[in-house]
Amino acid sequence: MWSIVIIDDERSVLQGMKKTIPWDELDARWAGEAADGRQGLELINEVQPDIVITDIYMPVMNGLDMIEQLRKQDYPGKIIILSGYSDFEYARQALRLGVDDYLSKPVTVQTIRGVLQKAINELEDENHQKLEEHELRQKLLLYEPFVEAEWIKNVVTGTYAAAKQAPLPAGRLGAWERRSFMVLAVEIVRTARVTGIAPSDFYLFRFAVCNVLQEVLSSAWPDARFIELHSHHMAVLLPFGPEAGGGESGEAHACARELCRTMIGHIDRYLQLHIQVGLGRLKTGWAAISDSTEEAFQALAAKHRCCVPGMEIYEYVPAGEAADGGGRSASLRPVRFYQQLAEAIRLLQERQAAQAIESFAGQLAASGDYSPKRLQSIAAEAWAIFGYVLSDAGPSLDGILSPAGLDCELRGITSVERLEEWLCEKVRLICQTPGKNENIKHKQAVDFMVQYIHEHYAEDIRLSELADKVFISRNYLSNIFRQATGETFGGYLTKVRMEKAKSLLREGKFMVYEIAEMVGYKNVPYFTSLFKKHTGYSPTELPNNGW
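RESULT FIELD:
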């Protein structure tokens, strides 16, 4: 409902206007009246009406002076002058002050209705525009973290084309140019506990590891960035100031080593899992970050220099300094290539995968560093990535090539040309397997659901809403999810919530009822019952020796 105030020193005019205006028809209400400009100014500041109808010539403060004060205060409403004076100077001043309409007394009901309707229409348009602008700003604020996270992932993995297509705003990009960075490569060690398990359990393992590492970073290194990669691998981007000290004994590496100790210790203590970490060297500017990533994964693969006794923390060894006397360190892991290949296979884009393979093979041939052992290792890792990306998306990779057959074929890869042929052949087989497109659509739907659960577990998530998002019926989606994960949708959601609840309880910062609400439960007794069923302990009776 639109609010209107009337300011005029003639009592008869005030009463007449209140009776003349068709309030109900305009969906408007009377919000007050005043007899001079000063009183009017006070009234307007108090009630903030949508429309002001005012006379010009009044005692104490005239209408034009009042309007001038309102403009200085950025009054956002509409101002209509209704005056018995038709002097051109008054009209000129009114136009200068941005008055919305100028009427002479007396005025008819039809005229006042038309003027007010025009003002209300303009207010509606302005409000609609403001609403759209607000919603746009909210969307930008909502999506900005995701855009930045994707940009950071592209920078870390070295996919510069993607990073340049969607750069950060210039002001923020400058800060990335001035700072120094180091990348930590993290790998979940393939112990008996994490091999041969169902995909749903592996997703939960990854989720738990990511949760713990992000908690460590939020406490020990708040501006660090955590990046999920593929399979058992992830990365941590550590920013430093321009003055950070490099080198093996520099302050940057000392701080990074201490962080690695904490990360490994927390994963071992709380999850009984093991991770190993590789440290890249310090780089300046975002364009060099991927070099630190390659170095970090090389350190992890070569394991030449363990920088913390008794812990699997390895530093990069430059060429010529390898401790094995070989005169050179292991070649850089093709992190960028693996990321490009994983994305292409995930979307079944055969041509994109073939282009990535061709480009990488050319770079490998030009480097001259391609021993048969290295080529076979790259092929084996690529096959493992295929398996991870396509897990439960239809026929398993064993249906394409058995483990024994894989070992035999890997031994035959002794040249870059053969590696390129072998990878392209496997990509073609995967992408052209009958029924694969439908299966990959199902897997993408399940992947979306899993990611959505992990990101929105605190909300009231309903399977029907997710079904609408992926354009699959609720019952069919439920069956797909169960087949892919071995869990019902509700059961998996509960598992994720309980994992997060355990993580929050470890922090010791929140009461049980607060944690219940933080993971999506408003009924505390129900949360407590589920928690005990899931863990064997009530939230207040947790053991002190981890999980």
